[in-house]
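haha ok so turns out i had the wrong file open the whole time. this is the CORRECT one, sorry everyone. sequence first:
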Amino acid sequence: MANRLALETSPYLLQHAGNPVDWFPWGEEAIAKARSQDKPIFVSVGYSTCYWCHVMERESFADPAVAALLNRDFVSVKVDREERPDIDEVMMTACQAYTALSEGRSRGGWPLTVFLEPKTLRPFFAGTYFAPESSEERESFVELVESIAESWRNHRRGVEVQAERIFHAIATAVDGDALLDAEERSFALRGVTDAARPANGFGWARRTVPAAELVSVARQTASVILRHEDKAHGGFGDAPKFPHTSWLMLLEALSARFEGAGAALDRGLRAIVRGGIHDHLGGGFHRYAVDAGWQVPHFEKMLPDTALLVPLLAARRDPWLARAAVRGLEWMSREMLRDDGLFRAALDAEVDGRDGAFYLWRRTDLEAPIEGLSREDARWAAAVFGLDRTPSFHDPSHPTADSAHVLSLAEEPDGRADGWARLDRVSEAMRRARLARPAPRADDKAILAWNALAIRAFALGAPAMKDDGGRAWALEVAVRAFSVAWAEFVESHDERVIRVWRVLRRGLVPYAAQLEDVAALAWAATALAEATGEAWYDDRAWKLVEFATEIHRDEVGRWCERRGLDAWGLRGRSLQDGATPGGAGMIARVLATLARRGDGLMRARSLLGAGLAASASTVAAHPTDAALTLCAAYEAEGLLLPMGLAEIYVHHDEPNADGNPRAVELEVIFAWGFHVAVDPAHGREAALLIGGDIAAASLPEPNARVGDAPCYEGRVVIPVTLAAGAREVTLRCAPCDATRCLAPVTVRIPL
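then structure:
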């Protein structure tokens, strides 16, 4: 008998629809039942192409005895992390916090196993995969369930204390600087963009970091990243090894002016392209490598992993890397493109319960006849792909199975000796032979953020194609996908975006977009504007930015998942880059691009500067987690407002019919803690000097006092009448804080 999940659209939830567990999807029905029956909520989080999620489903959730325990003592909830990244973020952070407290080191992964206190929804236990049998390292899943149930019945106060302790760690990690107390919120409502709060009227509650300082933080972070480089194998760190695409993007941004950045970037990309993480037959890239040498991948293939690598590969203008970029585009088009022009989410890691079965080879596979492959080619392929070496993969879930090979290249074939052409021909013959095998399941839902990254990949990867026809094809795929994404995911009224959705499968799934969805689509739009030369795409990017300022920006200018609070009283983290870039980093890169071209230059610079200023302390404290934000700061060097100035906006009036100079209003917002003093002997005009192409400016009365001296602080609006043909206005002032006055600064404000 099917459970409630049979009514869902998520492929992951549908995989559990036949379980004897009385599953609920996340929602009010499950929460209300848990509260009415005073039962903890068991939350299991995963995704449809997760190998160990499948294993735990077969071992535990399909077992009637296990289901009976869960149904008796808990309300059980299944969550697709790809549909609900907001829920996953809280659960994953709980797991990292709990394991740090209980084991001394932070761990995470999927499937996630979390137990919540029903009234507050606060997690009090969290872990990942639990086997059906206990081991020296870990109790079995049944033992865990029985232990949790006993603690809930007999040690309730201890459970509640633990929930409070874990939640404090969650709130700090997820919201960070957004955890403002009431006094700080009152400052924010006055136009404050720096979240620091005065401590007893002197100094600062914590160190503030000016937005412009993030440029030097970007350089320092690049140095830290380079120290983590694995020069023997390429990439960063040890096993398991991820591409760390955000780190690679930072090195790319700094490569022209930072010694060693370009070389490390190339070493990492070449190692990824040679290794087993690269699908040498079908193109595209697996999730990550389980070893330090990139040889054995975690076999699922997810759309964003390839989509993020393709622009990096194409931008290096290296024929070998360009080949990998092109093959990545071909894989996305051949295996991930849906009939409607959007892209599927992922391909499963397993086939018939065997991890990587579709991708593994044995020497005997090449000894059998393969159409289009001569005996000599087969011997050459065995040597090139490493099938004449010791097998690299052994399935830990099937210890009696034979070991097998993951295809990888010990070195790049010689392109001058027609090695690449032969590699293409041999790879294609082996790929076609591989099609006779049972294929991995596909998760066919379209996720907006992931589709946007794919659109960006086709737009920026087009130059890597060998001819004009290929480049036109890549752009055509990108243009069509963007058009469909805009039509399906974005709701507009009077040319204003009013709602954005995240998932499309059998119609729209009713989950609002996350910041990453909105920002990624805007990022794709700026890439298409660059690739096509059409300003219409920058206009789409602006419409998404304006929507994000309404929905995903808090009182202090910080980009977050929601302006309001969720079920846990949180706004959501967007700064941190993970397997995909954080929303704050993507929207910062969008604004860095818009700040250099088209209309709204000053608004883009102000939004960028305000966002960087509001999050600068957090970024500076954890810079390697926010590499994409640092990319934007570095790219915007020279565009950010000077210290003391938070935001400047230009509000235009229409030109007069007779052609007289038009009027504008300059809205100047000073950073929290800064002001501009007015010397009565020299007047207001000396404090705020308005120049450039103006006919007149009308400074308001000072709006504050420091001691007995009048000053300007917070928000100041200055009406300005422009001269004919005006192109820019200048603002000159000397901001001061409680202890010092800075050198005078001049800001050029384009009109």
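Residues 178-207 have pLDDT under 50 and may be disordered.
again sry for the mixup
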